[in-house]
Amino acid sequence: MRKLMGDMRDAESVAAASRLSLLQFVVFAVVGATGTLIHYAILLSLVELLGRSAMVGTIAGSIAGAVWNFFLNHRLTFKSQQQFHQTAPRFFLIAAVSLALNAGLMYLLVERFRVNYLIAQLAVTVFILCVNYISNALWTFNRSAK
């Protein structure tokens, strides 16, 4: 029985790994880059033009970028056949967790460690890109995920 359970876990690991591909990650990153441009445009506009805090700018930018990314990832990256109502709640839950993670890391880097807000945002963005790809590939757009 233990051998069977071990084999099943190995099969699940192989199946999960097959859902992650380099090409798909590159498309996800390109889609994310367009969302990041939207995010940064809003961040810069709010901070530099309107005098708002980096925290307000990054939260507003994250929300706009997430909406953009959902639609492009649904159609381009994952070529999902699932309805929006099936994938959107998962995608935006991941986006909400990412927003909290983004805000928390930005707070630590900018407010506590006095890192320039643009350098901090770049580092946080790279980290969140990897977390989001894995989460969306294995959960949001995975038909077999429960």
Automatic annotation (TrEMBL):
UniProt cross-references to Pfam families, sorted A to Z: GtrA_DPMS_TM (PF04138)
Membrane topology: Multi-pass membrane protein
Coiled coil start-end: none
Parts of the chain that traverse the membrane: 20-43, 49-71, 91-110, 116-139
InterPro entries: GtrA_CellWall_Glycosyl (IPR051401), GtrA_DPMS_TM (IPR007267)
GO biological process, one term: polysaccharide biosynthetic process
Protein name: GtrA-like family protein
Organism: Collimonas arenae
Lineage, uppermost ranks: Bacteria, Pseudomonadati, Pseudomonadota, Betaproteobacteria, Burkholderiales
